[in-house]
Amino acid sequence: MTYDFQDRVFLITGAASGIGRATALKLSSLGASLALCDINSTSLVTTTSLCTGSHFTHSFDIASSSECTHFIKDTISLYGKIDGIFNCAGINPTSIPLEDTTDEYWDMMVNTNLKGTYNITRAAIPFLKSGSSFVNVSSICGLHPFPTFAIYCATKYAITGFSKSMALELGPKGIRVNVLAPGFIDTPTNSGVIAGEEGVKSLEAKVSLGRLGSAEECADVVAFLFSDGARYMNGSVVEVNGGTAES
């Protein structure tokens, strides 16, 4: 299914790689204007070069509320509006027993995976009009618990709850909030992919379709959630997992 996003403006966090990059490419190919951000400036430039058309980019840490506010305001100054926000920035977990985790690991996970989404959402709301929407990235780990991933699960469960609450709060203003919950996706930061062939096989064995998903398949779902076809979806959690049993 294809959509016409001409004259629509989308903001994407975590746009330098993985699902964020794939979504940027997808939306730009459909005619959208984009505001892209990521802490990795080099990879962000690569994303922009792969997109159709020219787009606004800024590299910063979304854990900074002031930087998020500046980014939102700069986007409004440039484009005059924001039609959709894809809160995709996040850090994939490392398998660590809770007693071995550190304060630094907690702060890294919470600041990026949760606080970043909060920062962008809070800063954007005053500028959004009826018909705009958010898509926030949770995870299979935001629906089902996994051992040795307690902190990551906490951040992703929190995204689900945060998004459902915001859907109720913003719905009366005509602003929708939905959640993308990916399963095992073939991205450079997926711990199974990093582990190599055996790690990938272990993940594939948990998926009924017998393979990892692609970032592009997630991007297709994001495009749908931003489209008029999803106009009555608000507070929904869309799982993209190929048929994965909970742990």
Automatic annotation (TrEMBL):
Record CDD domains: SDR_c (cd05233)
Key word Oxidoreductase present: yes
Record-annotated Ketoreductase domain positions: 8-183
SMART domains: PKS_KR
Gene Ontology terms: biological process: fatty acid biosynthetic process
Highest taxon of the lineage: Eukaryota
Entry keyword set: NADP, Oxidoreductase
One Gene Ontology molecular-function label: oxidoreductase activity, acting on the CH-OH group of donors, NAD or NADP as acceptor
Pfam family, one: adh_short_C2
Family membership: Belongs to the short-chain dehydrogenases/reductases (SDR) family.
Full protein name: Ketoreductase domain-containing protein
Protein's organism: Jaapia argillacea MUCL 33604
Biological classification of the source: Eukaryota, Fungi, Dikarya, Basidiomycota, Agaricomycotina
